[in-house]
Amino acid sequence: MADNLPRLIKWFETAEQASQTARAEAEQARDYYDGKQLSEEVRKALRKRKQPETWTNLIQRKVDYLCGLERQSRTDPKAWPRTAQHEQDAEAITDALRYVKADQNVDVKRSKVFQHMLVEGLGAAEVIVTRGRKGVIDPKVVDIDWDRVFFDPHSSKLDFSDAQYLGYVTWMDAAEAKAKWPEQKALIDQTVEKPTSSLADTYDDKPKWSYWADKARNRIRVVTCYYLEGDVWQRVVYTLAGELEPCGPSPWQDEDGKPECGLILQAAYRDRDNDPYGIVRNMIPIQDAVNKRESKALHLLTMRQVRVSPGAGMKANEIRAELARPDGVILAESGEVEVLNNQDMTAGHFQLLQEAKANLAAMGPNAAMQGKGNEDGSGRAILALQQGGMVEMAPLMDGLRHFTIRMYRQIFNRIRQFWTEERWVRVTDDEQNVRFVALNTTKGTLAMQKLADAVKAEEVPMEVARQYEQQIATDPSMGEPANLVAELDVDIDIDEVQETPSLQIEQFQTLTSMVQAGIPIPPEVLIEASNLRNKSKLLEMLKQAKEGQSQPNPMQQLQMAGEEAKVEKTRAEAVLTGAKAQNEMIRPQMDAMAAMSQPQPMGPMAA
After folding, report:
1. How far apart, in whole angstroms, are the C-alpha atoms of residue 464 and residue 172?
2. Positions in the chain short of pLDDT 70
3. What distance in Å separates the CA atoms of residue 174 and residue 187, rounded to the nearest whole number?
4. Which residues pair with 354 in a beta bridge?
5. What are the φ and ψ backbone dihedral angles of 345, each rounded to 5 degrees?
């Protein structure tokens, strides 16, 4: 729709113009995290007085600790059934979500989003699909840099759920754009020839946000925008000269089958101007104070104030240079040169330096949370010190959790929308054997797969497996559908991980000492109290083992029946063999008795 293009361009340029202040602050926050903390004016002043450029980057330590905490708390998604009949199907969805997580390296992308939330204040990702070489469609998670994202300036919520439009920018070579949209070559060439949207092309002092092309490098700006038209999310890809992908309902569907916005945004904080910001913004003034006090204290320690008598006959610069040298010599009479005491100023700057460092250390993760100080204390003592910092970080971690659940929900929506045919998903959570889970299949296919896995693991003999295969083939119920993704309705959650594990470790050590002392404690209790990564999997294995001991499954029953048949056959063969042997032993006796019972012929009579 050509008449829609001016509105789309105005939305984008308004959003970028309104966020100029926030973008400048975000760029400053990133520079401070990277250690670029001294302005050019300060550097010139330090070079002029021949003082080294020094700074102590305390901000990076804070951010890196929280990023490390996020990495330690990584967990797998879990699908929970909303109805009892979908309990087994929900396990298949859990396996599918974990397959996509491993395939798309979701953990690494989520960590990048979280770092952008901490530093610049805004993290973003888009959940779309990708088509493989064999035509297989899989969900795809794309992490988007904070400076590529734009949003409705009137939106004020942390998750941008009240935004009228959201989008992101992609700069690409014109040749690449023509290869991706070959039917839009004319529009791409027009954008390159007219790189700005301003009507007055003669002005050179254009703001950066008005440029849509880099003519020197032959690159163009491509905008992907999601916007609400009524209550329906629309999607369009455009550049200055026109639409590369026409406006229309978003191709991605939610759980109700309605178009949804594939772009997920999450802010750490937002101020009264609706600008997102992270934890670094409030640390910058204190970091400046630390750098300033350190530099000033160093300057006071290396330089001294001097009172010189005019009769000494020496110039001020000469005396200053000699005092700065360890072997300096001053040609003057006693009392003509006096070094003034500035220890009070030096002590004052050191005191202010310590206060600034203490203030920065009190923000967010404290020393105990970072494993510094009081390492020999008990778990409860360390936990008490950790609580303050963790309470302060709770809103950030809650926002990350909200982002993660929305991301996995959209992954599930893509699975439901595009996985419509039978699909086998590789599950790699088993460290010894890789297994596969079938989606959009039948109960018979699932039963055959379980039987094949049991035969592969040498849990069922081949002859018993053949009997079970016949039962599956003749059972009409095995043709019923199973694991139909489009019909499933599940809730998605992520396991909670205790961010302060000191008390948990202490409790686990207490339980293990009780076991060593001979106190019987069920293994489930020990696993639940531990900090193991695959706790739920271990508990499920224990449960299945107990159920298998009390109630054998049909395959086990068939196996037992087969073994009993073998025993009966052996017994019958033994009885038959014994009977034959006994028959062979008594046959000579029977033959002798039969011979004796026959009448004997009479001989000739005597004369």
Report:
1. 62
2. 1-2, 84-88, 195, 197-210, 297-314, 316, 319-320, 322-357, 359-390, 427-435, 457, 480-481, 483, 486, 495-508, 529-538, 544, 546-607
3. 10
4. none
5. -70, -40
CA distance 309 to 293: 32
Whole-number Å distance between alpha carbons of 274 and 155: 7
Q: Across-strand partners of 235?
A: 226, 248
Tokens 């499954």 belong to which residue?
553
How far apart CA 465 and CA 446 sit, in angstroms, is 14
Q: State both tokens at 492.
A: 């998605």
Using CA atoms, how far apart are residues 434 and 425, in angstroms rounded to an integer?
A: 11
Q: 233 near 254, Cβ under 8 Å?
A: no
Q: How far apart are the first and last CA of the chain?
A: 148
| Dihedrals phi, psi of 364, to nearest 5 degrees | 70, -135
Length reported for the chain: 607
Asked if residues 339 and 304 have their Cβ atoms less than 8 Å apart, the reply is yes
Enumerate residues 6+ apart whose C-beta is below 8 A from 238.
Answer: 5, 8, 9, 222, 223, 225, 244, 245
pLDDT in tens, 88-124: 677 888 888 988 999 999 999 999 999 999 999 999 9
The structure tokens 């290869």 sit at 179
Neighbours of 551 (CB within 10 A): 9
C-alpha of 240 from chain center: 35
- In the beta sheet, which residues pair with residue 234? 227, 249
Half-sphere exposure of 47 (CA within 13 A, CB side): 7
For residue 411, what are the CA distances in angstroms to 130, 348, 405? Answer: 12, 57, 10
Question: Is 242 in contact with 184 (CB distance < 8 Å)?
Answer: yes
Quote the tokens at residue 73.
């708390």
For residue 336, which of 314, 316, 306, 312 has the smallest C-alpha distance? 312
In sequence order, the 6+-apart residues with CB closer than 8 A to the CB of 295 are 46, 51, 54
Residue carrying structure tokens 């160093």: 298
One-letter amino acid for residue 568 of the chain: E
Given the structure tokens 């470790």, which residue do they identify?
Answer: 505
Domain ranges of the chain: 2-198+211-280, 420-554
Rounded to 5°, the CA angle 96-99-100 comes to 90
Structure tokens at 179: 């290869």
**3-class SS shares of the chain: helix, strand, coil, % to 5:** 55, 15, 30
Q: 96 burial class (0-12, 13-18, 19+ CB within 10 angstroms)?
A: buried
Residue labelled with tokens 């004052």: 348
pLDDT of residue 571: 62
Taking only Cα atoms into account, the Rg of the chain, rounded to an integer number of angstroms, comes to 40
Q: Name the strand (E) or helix (H) holding 26.
A: helix 20-33
Sign of CA dihedral 209, 212, 214, 220: positive
